[in-house]
Amino acid sequence: MAKPAAARPVTARIDKLLSSMGYGSRKDIARMAGADRITLDGERLSDVTRRIPVLADLPARMAVDDRPLDPVAGMVILLNKPLGVTCSHSDAGPLVYELLPPRWRQREPAISTVGRLDKETSGLLLLTDDGDLLHRIISPRRMISKTYHATLARPLTGDEAALFASGSLLLNNETKPLEPATLEVLSPTEALLTITEGRYHQVRRMFAACGNHVLALHRLRLGGLHLPKDLQAGSWRLLDPTEQQQVFE
Ligand code: URA
Hints:
- By secondary structure, the protein is α+β, with helices and mostly antiparallel strands.
- It has helices at 14-20, 26-34, 58-61, 131-138, 160-165, 202-208, 241-246; strands at 11-13, 38-40, 43-44, 51-53, 62-64, 67-68, 76-81, 112-113, 121-128, 146-152, 182-187, 190-195, 214-222, 225-226, 236-238.
- It has 3 domains: 11-68, Roll (Structural Genomics Hypothetical 15.5 Kd Protein In mrcA-pckA Intergenic Region, Chain A); 76-140 and 227-246, Pseudouridine synthase I, catalytic domain, N-terminal subdomain (Alpha-Beta Plaits, 2-Layer Sandwich); 146-222, Alpha-L RNA-binding motif (Alpha-Beta Plaits, 2-Layer Sandwich), CATH 3.30.70.1560.
- Helix content is 19%, strand content 26%.
- The strands form 3 sheets. Strands 7, 8, 9, 10, 11, 12, 13, 14 and 15 form a 9-stranded mixed sheet that branches. A 4-stranded antiparallel sheet has the order 3-2-5-6. Strands 1-4 form a two-stranded antiparallel sheet.
- A hairpin with a 2-residue loop joins strand 13 and strand 14 (225-226).
- Helix 1 (14-20) packs across helix 2.
- The longest helix has 9 residues, at 26-34.
- The structure holds uracil.
């Protein structure tokens, strides 16, 4: 039987590629090459109209100003979101995107947050330029679970776990009950809550439905991916494909 043909790598013109990665306009890229600022496989690159395969190893082969090229499209960023920053491209005030290298805000396709955390929620947040992956993660059909650590204003009554697990809790102004959620009580005013949906202010509204109030909220887990203990608030790192897959486990 004939072997299936190997998929050909996507190719791109170097000036277009670097421009889509936020390094400047195509004219800027030509100027940078003219000033010997771009290398490929250790050689000075002069013809920026050349097409090259866009493979994940490009950052190891290409350098701009002696620094490895940024990751090519298809990146997934794990951020420990600090308090006080907004998951938006356009709101006033500090934005999560300002925690990434400034050049990345010019990238095409754009980097977006995978779902949102409230301005006053901290913890595990993914960002990606891979639209398909983003939609697979936030798709309600997949019911990917998320665990939050909640600190509460008032002591838990003991009734919350059963109510959250019931699948019958109706939030204010909604007509569809919440899917069952799991509550693990850590102390009278602290709990881990695992939910499989992503409704607006969901965790805060769930505790509000029990007459309580969330003082602090921190996301610890998304699917099988945990927030690493050594990733400081405001810090981020890229996820490799194996780590990306953990979200679906
Ligand atoms: N639930 C909330 O209430 N806020 C968040 O940021 C995430 C889940």
